[in-house]
Structure formats: structure tokens, C-alpha cells
Amino acid sequence: MTTYEAAGVDIAAGERAVELMKAKVARSRRPEVVDDASGFAGLFDASFLLRYKRPLLATSTDGVGTKVMIAQQYGKHDTIGIDLVGMVLDDLVVCGAEPLFMTDYIACGKVVPERIAEIVGGVAEGCRLAGAALVGGETAEHPGAMGADEYDLAGAGTGVVEAADMLGPDRVRAGDVVLGLASSGVHSNGYSLVRHVVKNAGLSLDDELPELARPLGEELLEPTRIYSLDCLELARSVEVHAYSHITGGGIEGNIARSLPPGLDAVLSRESWTVPAVFQVLAGHGSIEQQAMDRTFNLGVGMAAIVAPEAADAALRLLESRGLPAWVLGEIVPGTGAARYS
């Protein structure tokens, strides 16, 4: 007799995965989360929006890209979900929005309950670090379309910002200071190039290179730093004009997105030391500086553009929160570009 299981879909394994992830998801819960007994939808009490004068909902969706292939190859699945949260919710905070909730989607060749629970546990941990709730998700088994050990994940998040407090290019002024907020590593961009370098250079993820303090695979799977709560607190405490999330396109490309047409950000390469992992990739891959600049964050995961009189207080606050930051550059008259001095 032909069954769904015979076609490669294991419903019982999916149900087991849900049971295993429940406790981890609960750690991301916010008071506004409302239980839906059916489980078909995630519910979030929006009555708190009544305290806003003009609440703007912000939404973002993204995936982790080919970093998942490194996780699959290395057999480490408990942090890739944090990367997903960083890609989704830290985009929301750029406009000043507080992340509220998130949903995730995992497609896989075969549901292995323990592995799915590890992935979703990472998403839940990322949401906790961002102050958001993981209110739902979906795991889909795609036998025949994906290998048994293959998976991909994506997610969507929603946040809110008071219209009068929205950050962005229109607030940026000449004389503002650009702060660099340290990344935790490669984050989740450029992994097609990373994998190309690893393969062509004959490297192994188990390699212990002299430049690195841990195996290459551990270094490449360091989860994306979550900036949401730090950026929200900074905006509440000092005069922040704009943020830039440094993802695909690199430092210059992303900071330029937060500039008005008549102003430039002039940055200093001498203001920070590029982490060793990027030097390893550049060296083993013979990657020119321009390509490194356009592909990787190079140690800057977020940039904050603040009023000049707020710069010192901003740096002190970030230091008190354990987030390394420094003066990366300044805003000057120009054409809306970010460039190095």
C-alpha cells in the first residue's frame, strides 16, 4: 500500500521535532504572546500599540544563505538559527523599530527531530537576545528535492516604531560621527566566496590554522551578533540619527544606504583591526581588497551615525553593555557615498 511515509515524509518525526523544540521556543516568549490552541497561527496582543501616537509596523524577511552548508558539513546546527534572527531582526532596528515577533520556515530532505530542534532552538535563542518572541513556524520535508542531510531556513519578523522617532537618512547632518560596532565574525554574508576559498585552497573545516584560536569550522560558524537591544538602548539614551546593518555589500555599500544625497561618510581603515578570519580568507583565497570590501563586514557588524556631541556618551554606553565600538568616521558634504579617507 502506498503511503505518505513511503514517499519519504515522516509525519511522526515532525511531531517529535515539535515536542523537542517547545521548551526552547518558550524561552523567547513575550507577555504579548497569546496561545492559539490549534497551533495554526501565532497570536500577538497588539493592544499595547494604543500608547503610540502613530505606530509604524516594520517587517523584514531573510534567510541565512549558504552558511547552512558549512553547518551541515561541520555537523553543528545549534547556532545557525541565531544567524537567521540577526539577518531578519537587526534589519528592523535600523529604522529604530523594536522587534516584536518572528516566524521561521525550515525546508529539509528528511526530518531528524533532534536536528530540527537544535535549529529552532537557535532561532528561539536569537529571538530572546533580540527581545522578540518566536510565535510560530513551519518545518517542511522535501524528499527527492533535497538530500536527507540538507536543509534551508528563512524567517520573517515584525517590529514597531513611533513615526516621530523613526531613524534614517533624513536625520543625518554634516559633522555627525560614524561609530563602528564590532561584528562577532563573518556573520551570514559572503559564504559562497568562503566555501570557494575553503575548497580551492584545500582547507578542511577541522583545520587549526596558526592565525585562529579554534578550528576553522568553529570560526566560520560563530553566530551573527544580535544588535537589537543595544541599538534600541543607544537610541533611547543619546541622539542617534541613523543605523546601517553591515550585510551583503560590505561597509561602504550599507552605510551609503543611510545617507542623504548631499552627504558622504568618510571612514578610516586605521580605526580598527580587521579580525584574523578575514585575513585568513583573503590570504588563502588571494582576494583583492576591493572584493573583500564588497563581500564581508570585515569586523564591523553595525554602524551608528550619531550627533557629534553624543559620540563619547554612545561609546561609553556600548562599552558598558559589552559591545566593542569605536569612531569609524565622520559625515561631510558630498554625494551620498561612503568612502575611505
From TrEMBL:
PANTHER family: TRIFUNCTIONAL PURINE BIOSYNTHETIC PROTEIN ADENOSINE-3, TRIFUNCTIONAL PURINE BIOSYNTHETIC PROTEIN ADENOSINE-3-RELATED. This is Phosphoribosylformylglycinamidine cyclo-ligase. Keywords: ATP-binding, Cytoplasm, Ligase, Nucleotide-binding, Purine biosynthesis. CDD domains: PurM. It comes from Nonomuraea endophytica. It catalyses: 2-formamido-N(1)-(5-O-phospho-beta-D-ribosyl)acetamidine + ATP = 5-amino-1-(5-phospho-beta-D-ribosyl)imidazole + ADP + phosphate + H(+). Its EC number is 6.3.3.1. Belongs to the AIR synthase family. Gene3D superfamilies: PurM-like C-terminal domain (3.90.650.10), PurM-like, N-terminal domain (3.30.1330.10). Residues 56-161 form the PurM-like N-terminal domain. One of its GO terms (molecular function) is phosphoribosylformylglycinamidine cyclo-ligase activity. It comes from the Bacteria. One of its GO terms (biological process) is adenine biosynthetic process. It holds the Pfam family AIRS. GO terms for cellular component: cytosol. Residues 173-336 form the PurM-like C-terminal domain. It is found in: Cytoplasm. HAMAP family: AIRS. Its main location: cytoplasm. Pathway: Purine metabolism; IMP biosynthesis via de novo pathway; 5-amino-1-(5-phospho-D-ribosyl)imidazole from N(2)-formyl-N(1)-(5-phospho-D-ribosyl)glycinamide: step 2/2.
